[in-house]
Design brief:
Blueprint: H1 2-24, H2 27-33, H3 38-68, E1 71-72, H4 79-95, E2 101-105, E3 112-115, E4 123-127, H5 128-133, H6 136-151, H7 154-184, H8 194-234, H9 236-249, H10 281-290
Parallel strand pairs: 2-4
Antiparallel strand pairs: 1-2, 3-4
Length: 292
């Protein structure tokens, strides 16, 4: 889940920088002065929208390593690291992808993630808490889950979806900005002034929050697929056991304000579910059991 949060935060930061650049260079004002030329605006929105998503994808592995303090295993220093690297190598061969980088990050919570711009140049990292709290068969299932994310090209698909929603966020926020700008001007002709810039920034945040519901929906869907892949690579009972272990590790439930950021994805009720990147562990376990 952390890779999704990092990806979205990076994407939002890049989008904000690109929006400021558009204002500083006069591109926004140029479009507003021409009545919001829709063809030019859509082209700019697509360029910035997909540009932000692609830059986030290119930075994903670098950002994950530094944000999580991942120590990449260049040469295994102990039997546990040897087993970890050899297990990832075997799973990658089964999934027919290139050998990923393997790393460990210090965290008491059981966690793992995979990221990277290419399926043959990915990073798979696990927390020290996961290695301590799970059996090797359960760790193997978690690694199979992460390898499946890589094999399915989930980060690339997520990037394309993010690029599309970014495009519409940029496009619609500037349409609304142009309407407000013209309404505030004395002659009814927008000039892309301060009111336009503020409106665009506010609407970009609002539309961005709504658009992330689409990204989160895809993220939840791909978790079920990754669970199925982990079950195929490492055994269904091992995958169910790993999810059960995660469920126990996160009881009692996280506080409400933090629930969406837990590995279990929160409580999954009401409007809150629309912003969850992961389905609740109960649903993931039930999905695996129903396909037994």
């Amino acid at each position: 889940m952390k890779r999704i949060i990092l990806f979205i935060l990076t994407n939002l930061a890049v989008m904000l920088v690109l929006s400021v650049v558009a204002q500083v260079t006069g591109l926004d004002r140029w479009l507003a002065a021409r009545g919001g030329d829709l063809t030019g605006l859509l082209a700019m929105a697509a360029l910035f929208g997909f540009g932000g998503a692609l830059i986030s994808l290119a930075m994903s592995k670098w950002m994950a390593k530094r944000a999580m303090g991942v120590q990449v295993i260049e040469t295994p220093a102990n039997p546990e690291q040897e087993w970890l690297v050899s297990t990832v190598r075997a799973l990658a061969a089964q999934a027919r992808i290139g050998m990923p980088e393997v790393g460990v990050f210090d965290s008491p919570q059981p966690n793992a993630f995979a990221t990277g711009a290419r399926r043959n140049a990915a990073l798979v990292a696990v927390s020290s808490g996961l290695l301590r709290s799970m059996s090797r068969s359960e760790v193997e299932a978690v690694l199979g889950h992460e390898i499946t994310h890589v094999a399915n090209g989930d980060m690339v698909t997520l990037t394309l979806i993010q690029g599309v929603v970014n495009t519409f966020v940029i496009f619609l926020s500037r349409i609304v900005g142009g309407i407000v700008d013209r309404a505030l001007s004395r002659d009814g002709e927008g000039r892309g002034g301060f009111g336009y810039f503020i409106t665009v920034m506010v609407m970009q945040v609002i539309f961005g929050v709504l658009a992330n519901m689409i990204v989160m929906a895809f993220s939840r869907y791909r978790e079920f697929r990754a669970d199925a892949g982990g079950a195929q690579l490492a055994g269904r009972n091992n995958m169910i056991g790993a999810l059960e272990r995660l469920k126990m590790a996160h009881a009692p439930a996280l506080p409400t304000q933090m629930a969406a950021f837990g590995i279990s994805g929160g409580l999954g009720t009401g409007l809150r579910r629309l912003f969850m990147s992961h389905p609740p562990l109960e649903e993931r376990i039930a999905a695996l059991q129903s396909h037994a």
